[in-house]
Structure formats: C-alpha cells, structure tokens
Write a structure and sequence with these properties.
Layout (H helix, E strand, L loop, with lengths): L28 H4 L18 E7 L3 H12 L7 E4 L15 E2 L7 H8 L1 H25 L6 E9 L2 H16 L8 E4 H8 L6 E9 L2 H14 L3 E3 L6 E4 L7 E5 L2 E10 L5 H4 L8 E11 L13 E5 L5 E6 L6 E5 L8 H5 L11 H14 L13 E12 L6 E4 L6 E5 L9 H12 L4 H4 L9 H10 L7
Parallel strand pairs: 1-2, 1-10, 2-7, 4-12, 10-17
Antiparallel strand pairs: 3-6, 4-6, 5-6, 8-9, 9-10, 11-14, 11-15, 12-13, 13-14, 16-17
The structure holds flavin-adenine dinucleotide.
Protein name: FAD dependent oxidoreductase
Pfam families: DAO
InterPro entries: FAD-dep_OxRdtase, FAD/NAD-bd_sf
C-alpha cells in the first residue's frame, strides 16, 4: 500500500525528525482548571468506527472550529470523526499564554520582506479581523471562555526597540496600513499607563484574552452535541490510499482503521509525522508560560486592565494577561532570550511538552520583578507568586504564515496548521475558511490573505530562499 506522499517532494532542510505528540504532556494552568470537561477522554478505550465522511486529526482550536464550521454549513455532525492523540485539547490550544492579540503594525516590515507589501498588510489586517470574529462568536454563542475584550500595550523597554517600533509604525502607515486604532504613549505617559518604570514608549490598541482550553472545549462539546464523534488517546499513525473502492483514504490508528473521503490535518507542529513531505517545513518550537497568584500590588483594583507585550528587543520579550475572575497573571516569555544559557536555548526545538525549564522560570520571575518594580514592595505571602509553569509546542513555518487549504497532491486531504505562535489571532478566520474550501468554495470565498494558501510552491520557495525557520 503506498504511503500518502506526493510524487516529487522538494529537497528538505535538515531538522528534527517528525513526531507524533509525546505520550505524557504536562498540564498547563488552563488544563488544571478544566479537569471536569466531560469529553476529556472521550472514547478512550473504544474501537474506532470503520468509516466516516470527514476525519479531522487534532482536537485543538483549529480542529474543533473546522468541525464547528462544517456543521454550521450543513454537514451532519455524525459524518465527522475527530481523532486526538492524547486527551482533548492537549496541544498548544490548551497551553498557550491566553492572548487574542492582533499584530497592529510591528510585523509589517518582516512580513513584507518575505511576502511583499500587499500581503504583509493583509496579514496584519487579518489578525484584527480575527479579534472581532472571536468577540462576535463568543457573544453570539455565549461561550463561557472568560473572553476579555480590552486593550494591549506593546511596551518598549529600550530606546533601540522604541526606534524599531517607530520605524515599523511609520513603514506600515506609509504603505497605507490603518493605524487609527493605535495610540502612542511616550516617556512618562508610557510609564504611567503601563506601570512599568523602564518604559521608554508604548503603543496601545484593542486586543483580548481568553481561557483557551475552555474555548476549545466548548467547541468540542458543541460539535459532539450535534453528533460529531471524538476519539481521544487515539493517534492517527498513517494515512494511506484506501482499500475500499468507495473511499479515498484509510486513516490508521492503534484502535482501528477508518476509511474516509476527506482528511483534515489540524495537527500543528506534528503535521509532518503524517505528511512526510512537510519534514522541515513545519517545525516544533517549545514555548513556556507561567501562572502567578498576584500580590496585593496587582490584585483587586490594582489588577492589570490591559494585556502587554514587554519588549527589550524583537526577540527578547515577556507578555502578561491578568484574568478577571481569579486574578491569575499569565506570564509568557519569548523563545529567544540573550540571557538564557546555550543549553536552554538549544532545547527549544523539541516536541517535548512534558516538563518545564527552571532557568526560564527564574528569568521570567526576575524580569517580572524588574519590569514592575515598586518602591517599598511588600514581600510575597505564602500562596502568592509563582503558581505553575508549563510548556507547549508551537508549529513554525519557514515563511511565518500558516498552511491552509487543500493538499492538491493528495486529493481529499487538507491542512490547517503552522500558526507560528499566533493561533489565537489567526485560527478564527483560517478554520472557517478551510471549511469553505472543503465544501467547494474558492480561495476568494475564504477572504484570507493569499500567502496563507498551502501549495507546494511555498515549500519550493522556502528552499530557494534558504528559509529554514520563521522570522519570529
Ligand atoms: C506556551 C505557548 C504560548 C502561546 N501563546 C499564545 C498566545 O498568547 N496567543 C496566540 O495567538 N497563540 C499563542 N500560542 C500559539 C497557539 O497556542 C497555537 O497557535 C494554537 O493553539 C494552535 O492551535 P492548533 O489547533 O492548530 O494546534 P493544537 O492546539 O496544538 O492542536 C493540535 C492537536 O493535534 C493533536 N495531534 C497531532 N498529531 C496528531 C495525530 N497524528 N493524531 C491525533 N492527534 C494529533 C495534538 O495532540 C493536538 O491536540 C502559544 C503557544 C504556546 C505553546
């Protein structure tokens, strides 16, 4: 039986061997606060059905929202099977830093260098559309995912980074980019608004935060209520040409083989395990986040009302959101950080989301205290401070934008993966867009930037340009 590979895969850059999700992921703050989800281990011991019209591989926000979008477009729920290698939402969607944060201008120059100015503008506009899409969706369906529509600050912590931001802002504006929703705060005003004594300048624009696991779980619960079937702890291990003449593909799992017409790879950084021609074109990058119980200086009326990205440089930054209900602060850290040891930096390229790194914890807490230093700050009481640290795997692509669309060389197979750490700011238009394509729509119908469309040309271009990792 031939395996599902295109005839002439382009030469791939060397990298980590593709992998299925590893069996013992750690729990994030989001996982720890949603252990009661009734479908967490759905069908964990049951044999799979023999056939399904649609198989969606991956139960993250991509997979769950594709299922939701298909059903909303009239596909009967009972024609959809979702396969998940571990418990439901055990990937990045259940272990991120909680931001639904559109880029407002900062990435423009980097995107323009790879995709040209028009596409770069579209990429940034798209993220703003996603914020509105999430807000609208959550309100329409009353989704209990703690979505908080607020503003966010890009806080410039060095004059050099302030200069970089000013240049990006002007470049985006000069290209016709809309910055009418972005406010600039300089010097003392930036310090006052952000409460960061080191702030040199800050930009503020609308953004949100959510409990990402609750959002994904709500989507899964909703599609299951409409007849979709979720198989957890059930990795797809191969997609082969079907042995049944009336089906195109056989999806093999340890608990049975399912014959199907359409397969969706919403498998994030793991995509190349089933699509070997993507080896090197979707790569894992391990990220770490932390939850903190605030001291009284950041509790009640002193809580942060906005989210923040606090930046020493483009690649050295920290992020915070503070949750409305329990006041938990989620502290994210950049994957590059000049202060970390070479050993710690080296383990970023990994599929291992089973543990966390202490050096990163120490750096994040040290920086949090420096960034929000106050005179006469009280010491932490027992129960305050670091609550938990966790890791997750981000799927990177060489041109920094996701792969969305039909895998033309494998008719009936589709991909929606590679969000480069921006999934919450991208999936809410990409997943419905993919559902449209699956139901016969054109790329124009998706409304997505053309550069998001999967095509072998993107892989070939990446090889030609020597792009081996995301610009982020
Ligand atoms: C620490 C961290 C912080 C982040 N912070 C942010 C943030 O603040 N804002 C933001 O926008 N983005 C953030 N991200 C990125 C964001 O979480 C991702 O872009 C997004 O969750 C990707 O969603 P997904 O559904 O595509 O992938 P995932 O949520 O990873 O889902 C893929 C699923 O597929 C399953 N799977 C893979 N292979 C198979 C297989 N063969 N068979 C069965 N199942 C399989 C996996 O187990 C997984 O559950 C962060 C990520 C991390 C790790």
């Amino acid at each position: 039986m031939p395996s599902a590979q295109p005839a002439t895969p382009p030469a791939t850059p060397p990298g980590l061997e593709p992998s299925l999700p590893l069996p013992s992921p750690c729990l994030s703050y989001w996982h720890r606060t949603t252990r009661g989800f009734p479908h967490l281990n759905a069908n964990e011991n049951n044999p799979t059905p023999e056939t399904a019209d649609y198989i969606i591989i991956g139960s993250g926000i991509s997979g769950a929202l594709i299922a939701f979008s298909l059903i909303s477009s009239g596909v009967p729920g009972n024609e959809i099977v979702i396969l998940e290698a571990r418990e439901a939402v055990s990937g990045a969607s259940g272990r991120n830093a909680g931001h639904v944060r559109p880029d407002a201008f900062r990435g423009y120059a980097a995107y323009a260098a790879v995709h040209g100015p028009e596409q770069a503008k579209k990429i940034i506009v798209e993220e703003r559309k996603v914020l509105h899409a999430v807000d609208e969706f959550v309100r329409k369906y009353n989704v209990p995912c703690d979505f908080d529509l607020t503003t966010t600050f890009d806080v410039c912590l060095t004059p050099e980074f302030a200069a970089y931001e000013a240049k990006s802002f002007e470049a985006y504006k000069a290209a016709g980019g809309d910055v009418s929703h972005v406010q600039f705060h300089d010097g003392d005003e930036a310090k006052r608004r952000t409460r960061v004594p080191e702030a040199v300048a800050a930009y503020e624009w609308p953004a949100g935060s959510s409990h990402p696991a609750k959002l994904a779980q709500w989507l899964l619960g909703s599609v299951i209520d409409k007849g979709a079937q979720l198989w957890t702890h059930c990795p797809a291990i191969a997609v082969m040409e079907s042995e049944h003449s009336e089906y195109r593909w056989d999806v093999r799992t340890p608990r049975g083989t399912i014959a199907t017409q359409k397969v969706v790879h919403s498998t994030n950084a793991y995509a190349a395990a089933l699509l070997p021609h993507l080896n090197g074109y979707i790569t894992p990058n391990r990220a770490q986040a932390h939850s903190l119980v605030p001291t009284s200086a950041f509790s009640a009326k002193n809580a942060f009302a906005s989210t923040m990205s606090l930046r020493y440089s483009l690649h050295h930054f920290y992020s915070i959101i503070q949750r409305k209900g329990d006041g938990t602060i989620v502290l994210g850290v950049s994957r590059s950080n000049p202060e970390l040891s070479a050993e710690t930096l080296a383990i970023r390229e990994s599929f291992d989301d089973g543990a966390f790194n202490q050096e990163i914890v120490d750096d994040a807490l040290k920086r949090f205290n420096i960034m929000f230093s106050r005179d006469g700050a009280e010491s932490e009481r027992h129960g305050e401070g670091l609550d938990h640290a966790w890791t997750g795997i981000i799927g990177m692509t060489p041109d920094s934008v996701p792969y969305v669309g039909a895998i033309e060389e494998l008719p009936g197979q589709y991909i929606c993966a590679g969000f480069n750490g921006h999934g919450m700011a991208r999936i809410f238009t990409c997943a419905p867009g993919l559902a449209k394509l699956m139901l016969g729509g054109s790329w124009e119908d998706t409304g997505l930037p053309e550069c998001f469309q999967y095509g072998k040309n993107r892989l070939v271009k990446a090889v030609r340009k020597g792009q081996k990792g995301s610009v982020w």
